[in-house]
Amino acid sequence: MSPLPPLKALQAFDALGRTGSVALAAADLGVTPGAISQQLRKLEEAVEARLVEHDGRGLRLTPLGTTYHAQIRQGFAAFADAAATLREASADVIVLSCLTTVLGKWIGRRMRDWTALEATARVSLVGSDAEPDLAQGGVDMRIYYGGRRHPPHHAELFVDHIVPVCAPALIEGRHLSGPDDILRFPLLHIAWDPRFGANPGWAEWGRLIGARPPAANLTYGLSGSAIDAALAGQGFVLGQIAFIGPELETGKLVVPFDLRLPLPEPYYLAWNPDSLRKTGARAFHRWLLGEGRAQGLVSAPPSRG
What we know:
This protein is α/β, with parallel strands linked by helices and about 300 residues long. The chain folds into three domains: about 5-90, Winged helix-like DNA-binding domain superfamily/Winged helix DNA-binding domain (Arc Repressor Mutant, subunit A), CATH 1.10.10; about 95-155 and about 265-295, 3-Layer(aba) Sandwich (D-Maltodextrin-Binding Protein, domain 2); about 160-260, D-Maltodextrin-Binding Protein, domain 2, CATH 3.40.190.10. About 45% of the residues lie in helices and about 15% in strands. The protein contains ten helices and twelve strands. The protein has helices at about 5-20, 20-30, 35-45, 65-90, 100-115, 170, 200-210, 225-230, 240-250, 280-300; strands spanning about 50-55, 60, 95-100, 120-125, 140-145, 155-160, 160-165, 185-190, 220, 235-240, 260, 265-270. Helix 1 packs across helix 2 (about 20-30) and helix 1 (about 5-20) packs across helix 3 (about 35-45). The radius of gyration is 31 Å and the shape is elongated. GO terms for molecular function: DNA-binding transcription factor activity; sequence-specific DNA binding. This is Transcriptional regulator. Belongs to the LysR transcriptional regulatory family. Pfam families: HTH_1, LysR_substrate.
């Protein structure tokens, strides 16, 4: 006798035992009555025992089949319990989706502050450029850029600004008398995904200072990659303040002239209201909004009083 009968055969047998007829078992599993009968034959062949018999109206379990079904039912109940355990284990995980660079260069760096406040809340961070459908339930919250597509529940986080930054070694021993001197160094450009619209670049910053920059030496598709290139000393980048805070604090990046340009649109937080029932979700939601407000103050140009 085979120790492991086919799973489909066991499912057909269990359905017959639960429903009492081949027709109802077929409806329960979404298959044809013929498929049920075929699987029952396979099971009897596998266990080498007679489990079902005709009673004049259809198939029913034999006494041995009834005993066997009681054991099989326990097994399927255990499967159901295991699935429920998994659902319960994942039910309170708060899933936050962000653009890749937003995750790596902004909110991901702040999560230690959150865990210090809410050590019991569990958060899963997902970096994705695809906008999730929050109504489907796989993602609870989303940090996104721009206002062309607003989910029903959303709030503005902050407006970021860009500023020319570089590694200190790039300008070491070089005297920069004015902002236009930056344009004599290699320039790193960031080409955004077209769905986010045009991002301000060196041409726009050049207009701010009344100069015409040369063409950029290198172009990157991700802000994070361009910032990493600047950290490696490859040139100046128009870095978003939100993405370079730690590097500015530690002196790994410097701002020779603090002349900032705002991004055309804000960053937003969207959420599924049903997700706020999860453990710690409301507190996490408030914390994210607070971090956004704080970042907006940091990103804004310094007052010139």
